[in-house]
């Protein structure tokens, strides 16, 4: 199987309408996923049914109809709006004589073609191998098709079907590859964890951008970097699904010297394949450890409510809970008669490309992240120059002067720093008496 995107191959997208509330939305989304994979939608086929046919997913008549339609439109691939069992895929391919791709395989292909870093590539490759494992089939190898009593060419397994032996061998090879890749990924993650630990140690508040793919998370990150960034390291923005697959973390500085970390990460889509969610859990660790989440919503998309529900579900699946969330209704510029930027409690309506909007977001973060911050006096011994440096770099220092006992600093501190520097706070209290 090639990993590259298939260029402009026409497809038929097909779905079983079992009266799911989100059926139309997932069909629209499937069409967009097909485009994101570099293919085109030639036509759409749906079947109303109460149940799934165990052997062929769709009813037999519908399968014949689809095959005929595909022949008529010269379409080589049918993309199904659901996960198929390995045997359903095989049966459908046999009857239609076409390639059949399920939703998971489609998403895996898009992720494969987008992955850039070693980490993302490994995560996608693991998910693909996991997906492939139950689908390895003796008939996939033409040499095995004779099957039956013929021994393997070496003759060592004369009593078993050559097909079966080859199948076990293939599966063992895949499992080995998965283990190998998991180990490599663990190594990479360990290095990142160390980096993250160091950041947590610095006690900087962290904020994670989350949300449906293409909502404008990376654009928001770039807007914030432009106004508050310490570097101009922008992230990639593209009008396509899953432009971002890797997590980027940047240190930002709000007015008053207040630093925090902002992370941008992979976007979500409905029914994100289980294997992908599993393997991307590590990438999404930034969201799990965040002090605050910013859910970016494409307010200009008529399906934005479903997209928000999808985001909530995915966050639950990766184990994110009890983290306060700011909801950002983005792309307000594309909605007629929408007043922006605007804030109501934990909800903002804005446009990530508009500087005034970004300023409102910055002010909101300043308030939310620093509400427990208080002006605190500290007395730091001269031997602890690193503490004074830390306070200068990471907090708002109101005043600083030397005394006989050390440096007297008045700074605005959060609960973590107050705990960390408790002895210097007490020293200041004692000195004042
Ligand atoms: N008009 C308008 N377009 C926007 C706005 N914000 C983002 N976009 C566009 O929306 C598209 C997607 O933006 P991204 O920032 O890449 O979205 P994302 O959420 O990071 O998407 P993924 O990384 O694919 O999950 C790009 O074409 C942006 O230029 C906005 O406020 N107004
Ligand atoms: Mg992005």
TrEMBL record:
It comes from the Bacteria. Residues 205-373 form the Hflx-type G domain. PROSITE patterns: G_HFLX. InterPro entries: G_HFLX_dom, GTP-bd, GTP-bd_M, GTPase_HflX, GTPase_HflX_N, GTPase_HflX_N_sf, P-loop_NTPase. CDD domains: HflX (cd01878). SUPFAM superfamilies: P-loop containing nucleoside triphosphate hydrolases. Residues 137-166 are annotated as: Disordered. It is found in: Cytoplasm. Belongs to the TRAFAC class OBG-HflX-like GTPase superfamily. HflX GTPase family. Monomer. Associates with the 50S ribosomal subunit. GTPase that associates with the 50S ribosomal subunit and may have a role during protein synthesis or ribosome biogenesis. PANTHER family: GTP-BINDING PROTEIN HFLX, GTPASE HFLX. This is GTPase HflX.
